[in-house]
Structures are given as C-alpha cells and as structure tokens.
Amino acid sequence: MNKATQSKNLLSKLKEKLMSLDNLNDMDKRTILNNILKMEKKEINLLITGATGSGKSSTINALFETDAATVGMSSLPETMDIKKYSLDNLVIWDSPGFGDGINEDIRHGKGIAKLLNEIDQEGHCKIDLVLVLLDGGSRDYGTTYKLLEKVIMPNIGHNDCRILVAINQADMVMNGKGWDHELNRPTEELIEQLDAKVKSTQIRIKENTSVDIKPIYYSAGYQDEFETQRPYNLAKLLHFIVENIPANKRFKIADNMTTDENLYATNDDIKDYTNETKKSMAESLMEVLSDVSNAAVDIVSDTVVKTFNTAVKVGSAIVSAGRSLLSGIADLFSR
Predict the structure, then answer these.
(1) What is the signed CA dihedral for 139, 140, 144, 147, rounded to 10 degrees?
(2) Which helix (H) or strand (E) holds 28?
(3) Which domains does the chain possess?
(4) Which of 127, 218, 271, 286 has the smallest CB count inside 10 Å?
C-alpha cells in the first residue's frame, strides 16, 4: 500500500465499518463521522535540527523509510535552508546544520524562530515536536547548547510544543571502539560511556536552558559502497517521538513509519518499543469515541481496535491491550 494514502484508507475503512453497525444510533454515528473527518485533517509537524553532521537526513530516511532527505557525504552542509517533507499528514521540517559560520547560524536561527512561532488554526503551536540531534562522535556540543538556549527555548511558545534531544551515531562515542558489529549493539564498556554522555548532556542542557531534558542515544545506521550498518535503538527513537506527540495525532505516524523489521531489530531491550508505540497509536485512534454515549463506546471500541490491527498489522498483544481499554474508555474519551 502506498504510504501516502494509508492513513486515509485506515480512517475510510473505520468509517465504513462503524457506519454499517446496526446497533449504533444515528446521533452517535454522526458524532463519530464528524470525529473521523476532524482526524483526517489533523497534521503532525516535526522539526529536526542540530549541528552539521549530526545525522538529521539519515535519521529522517531511516525512521520514515524514504530517501526524500539528501544525506550529506562531504564536508559541506547538504541542507542549506529549512526543507519541508510532506508524507501525507506527517510534515517533517529539516533545518540546516548549525556550526558552519556565524552569519549562516544567525540566518538559520531566524528561520527556525519564525517556524516555531507559527500557530495553527486551533491556536496551538504549528510545530508539535522539536527533535534536536547530537553527534555521538563529537565532544563539543557547544553549538547545539547555543541553539537550544538562543533559538529554540525563547521561541518554543506554548507548553504543548515539545523538545526532545537524541544522540545519534552512538557507535562513534569511543571512536568506533566498543561496538559489536556482529550483534549490532554496544558492548558493556560502551554502554557505560553512552550513559555517562547522556547524563553530562542532560546536566549541560539544564545549565544552559534551566530545562531538564534527558536525551536518548541511537544510531541511524548507514549504507555506502563498502558496508552497511543497521540502525540501533531506532524503535526506541520512534517510541520517544510518538509518546511526545499530542495524543490525538499519534496514530498518524502509523502510515509513515518504517515497516522493515530489520531496522527495528536491535535496541537496548528496556522495553518492547515497537509494541508500545503501536499500542499508543491504537489508543490515539480511540479519539473517534470522543463525545459519544457510553453505550456507543462499548459497541464501537472493539471495531476500532480490530480495524487498526488489520491496517497496521500489529500483533495480538496490541489487540489485547486495546480491548483492556474498554472498561475505562468512556472516562478517557467521552469528555
């Protein structure tokens, strides 16, 4: 299925099934139909920024199974202006890398500030999430700290805008040492270094911005003419993003996330990130039950979960998790 149409097809299938339910009254059907129409129009706006070489483009390509973002292969910054990639109702804003000159940084900072101050039709920040990337192989994060302090924090706007920080190229924290290429994961020694880097970065961010943000680490992977390295912790990064997107939009990621299971294969295994992400998206889709009667919740919720399960091909654990919501779903979504 074409990714650009999957979300609309998901909602269309859901609409068709729900409208055919004989035991659902007309008022609830109209409410659900209106909710679906509103959901179809919802858009996720994700801004990805960071210093030059932090891997913004390769991260976009890995997460969303696309080559739309050009990966820089030379010393020159590949992304010269903020670029917009529209993947159905997911819009990715790829900002230029910082650290290539004072004048360029000022110009790029103004572009980011302008974008962060844009408001959508509902009066919320247009940008739902700002993902700030750091290069794991670099010891100097001064440019990124200034970006956070001078550009992002003063312009982040309302509280419903969110900032995430992620350390890419985790395999390069010890200059390539401590990486088990066969298992595609860090050794215990490297994990200690990565955890220390996360902690020190968190402390520096708080010192510079007074905001407590705990980064995660990952590797977007790479492929060149000589070798290929699969991503590490990509499922964790996706979970990190989805959990911080406004709840009523999360299911939109389902259409665009990478479907190649090999790209999600190796993670730190603290959680089953893929299933947790899909569960979160399934819960998000339950927004169709907003403002309906308690009786309609009981009738409709199982259909919602089954439709999501079929369209996104989630496992039985998600179905069970979705059904477990039924007892409290009225309180959650009938506000």
Answers:
(1) 170
(2) helix 26-41
(3) 3-40+278-333 (no CATH), 43-271 (3.40.50.300)
(4) 271
